[in-house]
Design brief:
alpha/beta, Rossmann fold, seven-stranded mixed sheet, 10 helices, 18 strands, 28% helix
Length: 397
């Protein structure tokens, strides 16, 4: 936990635990505060069901439940760390009837409909992503349902263009120095099902080629995930380092923080693993990596995704498997969190398994110091290049 930030509503102080790896960790975002005040003043009803899209650490949805404006609340976010903090904050503030799950947007909502959908719309998302969030939010509202959103002012004209033509009643539009809040009410004639058939399509950024094992692969890259125009130094270094493991055979591979999918493709192309698990906090990275694997290997790609914070999860039924776990460090992770993740991953490994970690040299060096204190780990090697490092470790039997 980074810190706890307060929010006072109806004479009661709510406390929200947060992490420096999440948006607005120092204090409650100004836009979220403005949105909550607007809903309190203008919604003019209570709601049976509410959805918070891009919930972060849960401020909007938890506060709606606390105020009694929503009887049940669902929180969704693409970041597994946000989901964990949301549920912790739900428990800490003794708020019932709140659930949270990982999702990109309402494309994962199935047939569920809500009485109110709220969102602090992401300021760095491209226009097609914002359009998908708004249209699918409206399309998942019950008749007489409401959609409330807040955007930074540079996006106001884009949001107004998205809303143009929707058969909705504007409840409120309020602009401040930095943010604009808008509230809409729909009726039974409102339809905005203009979302892409391919849920990832609004996120697409480019198409690039990638060569591994003397084969050329095509990748689609997405906004909001690194390496959209080519490999980072850490990935290049990791691929070169893993070449030394081509003669090893592993029962299974896990790629933590797979990015756009270069590493999973390389592992399969070189025959190092035949079964892959893609794991990490960012659901968008997991889904684009899996999509790129499937598009290049078809039914030959035996791969799954696991949306989670921890690198590895203990599995007593597979304690004897030889696992290759490959980690690309996230630059936003504090060192203490990295230490806990690495040590927890080592505890989960069976004998003969290998853990390879790549990232900026400083956190890798600090991890190595912690790991070398253990007697059940052998350092296989370390490479460095331009401020980046990769280290590989073997779990002793």
């Amino acid at each position: 936990m980074h810190k706890s930030v307060p929010l006072r509503r109806k004479g009661i102080d709510l406390q929200f635990a947060t992490s420096q790896a999440l948006f607005s960790s120092a204090s409650i975002d100004v836009g979220s505060n403005r949105l909550l005040r607007a809903i309190e003043a203008n919604a003019n009803r209570t709601f049976d069901s509410a959805l918070d899209v891009g919930c972060g650490y849960g401020v909007l949805g938890i506060t709606l439940a606390h105020l009694g404006l929503a009887q049940t609340v669902e929180l969704i976010d693409r970041d597994a760390l946000a989901i964990e903090f949301s549920m912790e904050n739900t428990r800490a503030n003794r708020i019932d009837r709140v659930t949270a799950r990982g999702a990109l947007d309402l494309s994962d909502a199935g047939n569920d409909d809500y009485d109110i959908v709220v969102s602090n719309l992401p300021g760095k998302s491209p226009l097609p992503v914002l359009r998908q969030i708004v249209y699918r939010s409206v399309d998942h509202l019950q008749p007489d349902g409401q959609f409330w959103g807040v955007v930074v002012n540079p996006l106001r004209a884009q949001i107004e263009a998205i809303l143009d033509g929707l058969q909705t009643e504007v409840i409120s539009t309020e602009s401040g120095p930095r943010h604009t809040v808008f509230g809409l009410r729909i009726d039974e004639t409102t339809s905005a099902d203009q979302g892409a058939a391919d849920d990832l399509a609004p996120y697409y950024r480019d198409e690039i080629q990638f060569v591994s094992a003397n084969e050329r692969f095509e990748l689609r890259t997405v906004h909001g995930v690194g390496e959209f125009d080519g490999l980072a130094y850490s990935t290049q270094l990791l691929l070169e380092h893993l070449a030394g493991h081509r003669n090893r055979r592993f029962d299974r591979g896990v790629v933590i923080n797979p990015g756009q999918g270069y590493l999973p493709i390389a592992l399969m192309a070189n025959g190092i693993v035949e079964q892959l698990e893609l794991a990490g906090r960012d659901l968008l990275a997991l889904r684009i990596s899996l999509a790129n694997l499937k598009s290049n290997f078809g039914t030959g790609a035996s791969a799954s995704i696991s949306h989670r914070v921890e690198w590895l999860r203990p599995n007593p039924d597979e304690s004897n498997e030889r696992l290759l776990a490959v980690v690309t460090l996230r630059p936003d992770e504090p060192q203490k969190a990295l230490d806990l993740s690495a040590l927890g991953a080592i505890d989960s490994l069976g004998g003969g398994s290998v853990l390879a970690i790549a990232g900026e040299s400083t956190p890798v060096t600090r991890l190595q110091r912690q790991i070398e204190l253990r007697t059940d780990i052998r350092v296989l090697g370390r490479d460095r290049h331009r401020g980046y490092s990769v280290i590989s470790l073997e779990k002793q039997s």
